[in-house]
Amino acid sequence: MLETLEEYALIAEIISAVAIIISLIFVGVQIRENTKATQASTFHEIAALDINILLNFSSSPELARLITLFRDDPDSLSEEEQIHGFYLFGAEVRHVENLFLQNENKMLSAKNWKSRKALVDGIVLSAGFGALLKHPFSKFFDGSFIEYGRNQRKKSGITE
Length: 160
Hints:
Elements: H1 2-57, H2 61-72, H3 79-104, H4 110-124, H5 127-134, H6 143-155
């Protein structure tokens, strides 16, 4: 009788070990699915921000002109237009800085980063970003992002 109880206890231990393994596999699958859902949500929010920024910049011909000229040739603007253009461009830079930092913190999948990297690099290689680098307000942007921008500009042969 004692041997039968020991056999049952051994079988119960084996069953409980298998149950633990199955539950760990289930938790792993749930974590992976949650990660995918979080990444999809993050990408959706980024796309919504992109659209919102574009709609705001195009809300008037004057805003569209200012942001375009500041990005491409800030020196072609009057002093008053440069100030206005700087703040518009600063909002755009803040957006791409956010994309950069999300990538650095592994919050974006490689595919999502690849689809946004051209936008980030387009901004940091622009003449407007060169003007931002010279402005005292550049200290209000993340240092690693500013360094990334400087490195990208140097790789592309752009001198400040």
